[in-house]
Structure to design on (567 residues):
């Protein structure tokens, strides 16, 4: 493609509202443009990258025996109501009505739609297993779109769904998808890890996220320094043996603690340490309140609380709800003398506290000498805290370290989470109606593009890997007014295209400095400069990722490129 015939609006200045480097470069290099908050147009270069990512995904999905379909983005509310997600999914679901006042949603995900399709078509175990995938735009009304393509309101996603007659069949498909995803992200050249994760609003259990390691990642990965163990911090189990004290429990006593609301403030005021304080939080688990305890130096993990409380939705109680329930401000909550209707859960570490400190459910008042079971009953003890760096790895090998990650893929074992409420059944080999056993497998295609952009860059611009660079070769005649340079550039352009190379020819009447800056910014793997030595048949070649430069003879250019691209 000739540069004068395409649309590559590069920018010299960095857009002020672009926070992260990948977003800045995608805008500056003319790959994307923002339409409105969280919604982007993909320009020719960006579209070419997306298409190449999609090609790799399609190849690996088909290798895993998954076939492509295309499902409607506009979904009727009745399907979501069957599973209850119309009410539980939250404000991210974009809802609308047609002229007949029927309710619809713009597809945030497609579990309900694909399940309704299969329940009408597949009635026998003989037609199972079956795996289908699509690549389509998704819509989620993000409260705070940020980081460009990494968190938007409209984005491109690959979602796949598998249907099975047995859990063994699902297990096999899950491992096939694990392999397919590993192949996809490896082929893209990404530095990633598969981590144990929470299923969130999708439902089901047994799932993994694929995380690209990056300092700008919104997720924290807990990983072992001595084994392959890795988990999203929300799902990392705590496997710690706490030392029990031999102290004798004392009688509980109230102490005035005016204006002391945080654990650190209370501990310092009372002359103790945070690990002797009992942190108390009130959660609303579906329609009931639960109180959760942790040691003062630990943080309570709401995902673990949701599982222990067997809740669909979990959120911190508001200050107003706490005031109505316990009669105090949040900084004075404690586990003593709670209402009978409130369930009380505690992290394992709390069980070893003797003569600790806890809120008294009175503003500006705390108890000292508080001991669990003696001074308040606990319904159950469980792993309810976030793992910390330095904790033992849950697999018993090494200790935990943290890294930041960008989620680019997620695979789930859904089981019958959708098939049961939607009455999606098949007849098994004994003629009995059984719900499909399902799996779900997603990749954020546009997010993958941003993740690659985040990992493949330098001070001058992108350094795209060969497999998804928008073009393979950038030909830059230094002076198009020079007949020799211009004609050699055109000749080389025609030759490389005839050999199957994807070529961008900078035929613009721009200064050499502008052309070189744009070439580095766009970041194609090979730049061939047609300059002053063109009359001698000598070309200057730059390898974008390494910055190395060479002089190649015109007649050897094909052999050299074949060697570089392994063609």
């Amino acid at each position: 493609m000739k540069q004068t015939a395409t649309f590559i609006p590069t920018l010299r200045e960095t857009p002020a509202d672009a926070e992260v480097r990948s977003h800045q470069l995608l805008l500056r290099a003319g790959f994307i443009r923002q339409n409105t908050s969280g919604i982007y147009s993909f320009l020719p270069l960006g579209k070419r990258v997306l298409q190449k990512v999609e090609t790799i995904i399609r190849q690996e999905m088909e290798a895993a025996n998954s076939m492509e379909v295309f499902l409607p983005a506009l979904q009727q509310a009745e399907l979501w109501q069957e599973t209850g997600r119309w009410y539980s999914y939250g404000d991210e679901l974009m809802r609308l009505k047609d002229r007949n006042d029927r309710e619809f949603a713009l597809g945030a995900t497609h579990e309900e739609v694909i399940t309704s399709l299969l329940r009408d078509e597949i009635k026998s175990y003989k037609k199972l297993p079956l795996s289908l995938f699509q690549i389509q735009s998704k819509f989620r009304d993000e409260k705070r779109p940020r980081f460009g393509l990494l968190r938007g309101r409209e984005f491109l996603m690959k979602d796949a769904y598998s249907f099975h007659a047995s859990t063994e069949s699902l297990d096999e498909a899950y491992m096939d998808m694990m392999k397919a995803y590993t192949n996809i992200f490896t082929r893209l050249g990404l530095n990633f890890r598969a981590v144990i994760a929470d299923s969130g609003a999708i439902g089901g259990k047994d799932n993994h996220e694929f995380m690209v390691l990056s300092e700008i990642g919104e997720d924290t990965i807990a990983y072992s320094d001595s084994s392959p163990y890795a988990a999203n911090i929300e799902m990392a189990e705590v496997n710690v043996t706490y030392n029990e004290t031999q102290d004798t429990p004392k009688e509980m006593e109230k102490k005035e603690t005016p204006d002391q609301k945080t654990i650190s403030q209370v501990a310092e005021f009372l002359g103790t340490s945070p690990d002797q304080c009992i942190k108390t939080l009130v959660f609303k688990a579906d329609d009931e309140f639960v109180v959760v305890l942790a040691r003062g130096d630990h943080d309570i993990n709401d995902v673990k609380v949701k599982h222990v409380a067997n809740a669909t939705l979990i959120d911190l109680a508001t200050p107003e709800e706490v005031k109505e329930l316990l009669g105090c401000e949040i900084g004075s909550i404690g586990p003593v003398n709670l209402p009978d209707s409130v369930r009380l859960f505690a992290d394992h570490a709390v069980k070893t506290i003797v003569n600790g400190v806890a809120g008294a459910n009175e503003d500006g008042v705390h108890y000292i000498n508080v001991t669990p079971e003696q001074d308040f009953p606990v319904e159950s003890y469980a792993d309810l805290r976030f793992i910390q760096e330095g904790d033992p790895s849950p697999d018993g090998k090494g200790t935990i370290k943290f890294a930041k990650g960008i989620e680019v893929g997620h695979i789930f074992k859904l089981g019958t989470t959708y098939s049961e409420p939607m009455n999606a059944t098949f007849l098994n080999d004994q003629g009995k109606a059984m719900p499909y056993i399902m799996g779900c497998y997603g990749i954020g295609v546009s997010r993958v593009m941003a993740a690659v952009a985040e990992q493949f860059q330098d001070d001058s611009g992108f350094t795209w890997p060969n497999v998804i660079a928008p073009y393979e070769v950038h030909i830059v005649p230094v002076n198009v007014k020079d007949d020799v340079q211009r004609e050699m550039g055109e000749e080389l352009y025609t030759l490389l295209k005839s050999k199957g190379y994807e070529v961008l020819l900078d035929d613009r009447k721009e200064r050499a400095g502008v052309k070189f800056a744009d070439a580095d910014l766009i970041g194609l793997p090979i730049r061939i400069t047609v300059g002053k030595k063109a009359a001698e048949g000598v070309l200057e070649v730059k390898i974008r990722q390494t910055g190395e430069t060479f002089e190649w003879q015109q007649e050897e250019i094909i052999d050299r490129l074949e060697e570089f691209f392994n063609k």
